[in-house]
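STRUCTURE:
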């Protein structure tokens, strides 16, 4: 599974990748995905309209099925 922590701002209405944790069962796939992330600075700070957009983007960028990507959205500006 690839766990993606996504920050969401209600005030500014955007989603942004905060952290990506790779924990795939296949060791070679785990290394491949980790290398791609390292080469792209874990896509940190990328801005998206929705959490679903994050999943689709990472699926394409990492060449991995969306079912292996888990999105956890954290609200960053709730009082």
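SEQUENCE:
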């Amino acid at each position: 599974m690839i766990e993606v922590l996504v920050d969401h701002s209600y005030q500014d209405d955007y989603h942004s990748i905060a952290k990506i944790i790779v924990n795939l069962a296949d060791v070679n796939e785990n290394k491949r995905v980790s290398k791609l992330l390292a080469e792209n600075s874990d896509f940190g700070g990328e801005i998206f309209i929705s959490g679903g957009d994050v999943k689709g983007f990472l699926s394409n960028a990492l060449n991995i099925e969306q079912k292996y990507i888990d999105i956890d959205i954290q609200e960053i500006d709730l009082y």
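REMARK: The helical segments are 27-39, 51-62.
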